[in-house]
Each structure stands twice: as C-alpha cells, then as structure tokens.
Amino acid sequence: MENPERFSIVEIKSFPEKQKAKNTKQITWFLLLKVMKVIGCLSWLATGFWSVLGIIKKRVMNSKRREESHKMGKLLRFLRALLVVSVVLLVLEVIAYFKGWNLNDLIFIQPLQTEGVLLMFYLGWLSIRAGYIAPLVVTLSKLCIYLFMIQSLDRIILCLRCFWIKYKKIKLKVAGEAYVTVDDFPMVLVQVPMCNEKEVYAQSISAVCQFDWPRDRFLVQILDDSDDYDTQNLIKNEVSSWRQKGVNIVYRHRLVRTGYKAGNLKSGMSCDYVKDYEYVAIFDADFQPNPDFLKLTVPHFKGNSELGLVQARWSFINKDENLLTRLQNINLCFHFEVEQQVNGIFLNFFGFNGTAGVWRIKALEGSGGWMDRTTVEDMDIAVRAHLNGWKFIFLNDVNVLCELPESYEAYKKQQHRWHSGPMQLFRLCFSSIITSKISVSKKANLIFLFFLLRKLILPFYSFTLFCIILPLTMFIPEAELPTWLICYIPIFMSILNILPAPKYFPFLIPYLLFENTMSVTKFSAMVSGLLNLGSAYEWVVTKKTGRSSQSDLLDEEELKSPSQLQQQVQDSESGIVMLNKLEEQIEVPLSKKRNKIYQKELALAFLLLTASARSILSAQGIHFYFLLFQGLSFLIVGLDLIGEQKK
Question: In the chain, fewer beta carbons within 10 Å around the N or the C end?
C-alpha cells in the first residue's frame, strides 16, 4: 500500500458567479428546445393519428358492403369466431398473469378441486389445450413448414438458374437470315380484344397500327365486346381514322357476348380470312407495343417448326404511381425475369401471359383453340399446346408497355381470377396430362411444380401458417413457431424476389407484409377454383386509367431508330395534334372509385393484433413485432387505405 503522505491536496477554485449564471441559462435554453421538440413531435403524432381516425370514420360511414358467396361467407364466419375466441383467451391470460397463476403450480391440480369458477375454467382450458388442441396445431404447423421449405427450395433453384443465365449470357438468337423482300415477311394477324375500355382503346389501336411491318402483310382485328354504345362509336371512329391512313384494320363486335375474352378471341379466329395468316399477335387493350415488336418476335419462328409461342415481357407505365403499384412491380419483375425466363430456356414451357405474345396459328388451332371453360384461357391453351409437343420461348429483352391496377379493389379481383382459374384448369386437364404422350419428367413438372407447388401449395401454406397458425401459437405455447421460420427465411425469400427490381429494396418489409396480406385473397380463390364454387367463374375486366405522360412518350422515342420515327410521322397525325391529344388526356380528371371495407382482412387484422398483445405476456420479441406489423398491414388493406384513394 502506498504511503498517504505522498498525496497532496489541490484546491479547486469555484466558477465565477457570472459564468455560473451563463451556464444555467444555456442549460435552461437547451432543455426548453428539447421540450419544444418533444411537444412538436407529440403534436405531429396526435394530428396524424386524428387524421387517420377521421379517414377510418369516413371510410366506415361511406363503405357499401357487398354480399359474398356462400363459401366466402363461411371463411369470414370462421375468422370472426377465431377472433372472438382469441379475445376471450387474451382476457383470461391477462387475468392469470396478474393473479400469478403459475402453470407449474397448477398442472397437478384437478379442476374439481378448485373453488374459483374462473380458475376452474382456466385449468379446464389448459387441460383441453394440452390434450387435444396443441397436438393438432403442431401437426398442421409441421405440414406447413415442410411445404414452406419445399416451395422455398424451388424458388432458390429458379434464382440459381437465372443467375446461371446471366453468368453465361445466354440469349435467344434468331435462326436463319432476316426478311429481305416484302414477300419474305409472313402474314401476321394482330388481335386487340377489349370490353368497355374507353380510357385506353386509342393508345393500343395507335400502337398496333404503327408496326414496322409491310402494310399488306398484317391485319389488325379490333375485337370489341363493349356494351356501351358511346364506347363502341369511339372505337369505330378510331378504327375508321386508321383505315383511312392505309392501315389494314377491321372492327368486330359480337351480338352474343359469351365466353368473355376467350369467346371474343375465338370469334375473331373464326373469320374466313384467318386461313391466309400464319401467326397471330395478341394485345390487351392497355398494351402499347413498340413499332419493332413484330420484327423482334416473329423471326424466331423461322427455321423452328416446333415453336408455337413467343412471349414478350411486360413493362409498366405506372409502376411508381403509388405503393400498391410498386409492390406489384416487384412481383411481376420476378415473374418475368426469373420464372418465365428460366422455364422458357430450360423447359421450353411456361404459362402464356394472355397478351404481348405471338402464336403460330397452326399450334393454336391444332391444340383446340380458345376455350372458355376457365377464367385463365391463356394458361389453358398453353397447357394444351405443351401436351401436343409445341415449344415456347420467352424474350426478356422485348418489353411491351401496359398498366398496373392502381386500386386495391381492381388488384384483388385480378388476383382472385388469376388464382382460381389454375385450380379450375388443373381439375379439367389432369386426366389429359396423365394420358398425354409427353415424357414422364414433363408430366411431373406440370403436375407437381406448375400446378400443385406454385398454384396450390403456395397460397395454402402462406395463409394457414402466417395468418392462422402463428396467432394461435401465442395462445398455445406448446406449438410455438421458431424465429427463423417467421423472420429469417421470409426475409431471405423476399430479398430473392426483389433482386430483379433492385431499386425497390427500400420496400422490402412492406412487400413481405403485403404478400402475407394478399394470402387470404389467394387462398379463397384457390379453394373456390379447386372446389368449383360459383366465385371461381367471376370475370371482371381490370379497371384501366389510360395513364400516359410526355416523358413516357419521349422515352419511347429515344428507343426508336430514325427510320421508325420517319415511318411513324408518315403514319400518324402531326406532332402538334398528338401533343394536343396528350394534353387533353392529362387534363381529363381520373374518375375515382369509392373505397370499400374488406371484412376478412379486418377480421385477420384484429386477430393478429390480439395475438401480438398476448405475445407481450410471454416476452416474445420477434413474434410480437411480426404480429403487430402484420396486423397493421391487414388493417390498412382492410380499410382500403392502400392504392388509389377517393378524393
């Protein structure tokens, strides 16, 4: 120990009185500034919260509830019953928590030995939970986990194959020489089916009439199923104006409009002059192909007699319009960049996207033509052509502009049709797949991967696991799901999904939450298609806005060659007239829909929020945050606060 005498005492002088006063004032001002910031933040939060409450109140008051089908009603009743049970259990668990009822102390007590009715009820619940409910939930959760891992593995394999394509720079090339004389160009039929699409008809007709293809070697069919007389006249006038410019274009209107889009296309193919054409290009009413589309797609058929379909990629004019369109763009970028491209190169088969594609008419008619037996006539003809031995190719570098649904209502209806139709088709064509002459490996791919894994298993496990089992496990701790299942794996898979659209990485978490939110719609559609319910046959034309901008037109002009620009000037009206038309389109106010309330989404929102409150009692951090944000996501969607809003 050191000698104390070696230490000396140093006198510390105090601060002068003026400096003390100055420091006191600085501290006071600093604290006042902090308090003002806190008050401002609280005021902002209160204002925002009050505004949200006002929107919710207005939405509830103005909402018009729609009658749902019998099966959808059963699902809603099931969710409501589950919500009521979860609320009762939450109240019971809160009481048990504050009363200090410890499971280890109560596990050996028989219900009849207790005096309190509430305690007896709680012990009865514990007994039933451990003996009957927990084993069932554990079994179902294990099944969903296995399916989830299998589907994730399939997604990873697709991504690895896509990386291989990029690494090897695999690109489809045209076999043979280019067309030299006019007679070398094959005859192409261009079909544009539409139905009451006043907002977009002019854009699509203008685009297909300006193809860089000999005028006498292609015919444009405008297949109009509109039941609005004014819309019919507008389309007729547009067709007449292009016919006067020398374009080979015809207008067809069916008196008996059966079969929806499939019936419309079938009617167009029944014309006598179709036998003079070798290929048919199909575009929906909101698609705007570039003038060189036919030159980039049709030559791939040359020298390839087994090729039945050439599919181009979609690009979206309104992908950054709102959060909903951004999330859709992420999904569709992955669909085209990974799924369609990989399946096209490695399997020569994929689902026809229904538009922006060119069919060999021989393949189309030889496979049975268009059928209206399902709501996915495009997938139907693709499967039948595949069973007949025809091959498909996908051109990832050929883009066609189109629109994304900007409202949740339109997107929900579109997704219902896209997920109910495949299950309808699977029921109808299963026997044909089994008895077809294609190889066993192609049959297995068609049944297990194309239909079961990607069309049935995906919506089943995503809804069951993350929307039903996960909140239940908060009240049934015996079946608790691991953290890696609800956090790490979903985030990793979402990162893979977002890779084809890297600039949307900031929307990673909203994308993950929204995909889980859409699972209830996809699950309902899948069940209705599989069980052949009435809602599986609902066909609603996706609402279009006809969005266009001068910048979009400028971007397209930059991609065109001088010869294409000169041809466009000759074929179209003067630039001033086109600009005036464009300004008129911009100035016309877009009709806004009345936002609705979606009851199933709201029921799931409150179920997940109730489960998140229960997770607080057991201090499950990751589970709490996931349930909280997923519940809020369902709440936002249920109140229709995503996408286009009514002003």
Answer: N
